[in-house]
Here is the input.
Amino acid sequence: MPRTGRCGCGRSRRTTCGRVGDDEYGRHLRADLTAAGVAGVLVDPTEPSGPALILVDAAGENMIAVSPRR
Here is the structure.
């Protein structure tokens, strides 16, 4: 299950925006997110799903590394 589904459960309000591809990986991810109570995940039939690593430092600055799946 993605960490966004577990982070701070019940203690604060969270908003997640996301989009997955209409592929096997995207369908699996969307099912996991739905099971975790995340709503509104969009499906993009024109792009494949792919992982991204988001690092956040103590000052709140982030760095995102994306690995597209083609």
About this structure: Residues 3-66 form one domain.
